[in-house]
């Protein structure tokens, strides 16, 4: 051993008495713990992403249901105010309020939604010049992931129920 005048024991680290080795890389256990934590965090983010996507789809479908309901209400008021009969027609991708002369209002539906107007006359609702709906039935809106909303219409009393 070396003789140290300072008595600070630094000679131990400079000499060959105690060998220090450097750690190169990670152990297998450290890598496994890191990967497990990473998988837990990523899975929570993925589940939050799918929940948010479902929430967006639900809100979008509710918006289209509200727009169709407001089109029905608007058609009743339009017919009463203008003393004209009209009809709500469902064609591919659009639902429109039409009189004999022209289209009054059109709602464009994206292709991922299927809208069916189930009445006596398929895909048509008839509104009288006094603002009463002549045909009873159900408007069914089927969205992505088989979500469905129904608007039930009863004639003459303007009863509209959204489920």
Measured between the Cα atoms of the first and last residue, the distance is 91 Å
Spell the H/E element sequence.
HHEEEEEEEE
Strand order of the largest sheet: 3-2-1-5
Number of domains: 1
Secondary-structure-based class equals alpha+beta
**Percent of residues in β-strands:** 25-35%
Helix count?
2
The count of β-strands is 8
Principal-axis shape: rod-shaped
CATH fold group: minor pseudopilin epsh fold
Regions with little confidence, pLDDT below 50 for 5+ residues: none
What key phrases describe this protein's structure?
alpha+beta; N_methyl_site; 4-stranded antiparallel beta sheet; 36% helix; 8 strands; minor pseudopilin epsh fold; 26% strand
Please sum up the structure shown.
This protein has helices spanning 11-14, 28-82; strands spanning 86-91, 94-98, 103-108, 114-118, 124-127, 137-142, 148-154, 159-162. The chain has 163 residues and is an alpha+beta fold. This is Prepilin-type N-terminal cleavage/methylation domain-containing protein.
What does this entry look like structurally?
The chain is of the alpha+beta class. It has a single domain, classed as 3-Layer(bab) Sandwich (minor pseudopilin epsh fold), CATH 3.55.40. It is 36% helix and 26% strand. It is built from two helices and eight strands; from the N terminus they run ααββββββββ. It has a four-stranded antiparallel beta sheet, with helices on one face. A four-stranded antiparallel beta sheet has the order 4-6-7-8, with helices on one face. The model has no long low-confidence stretch (mean pLDDT 83).
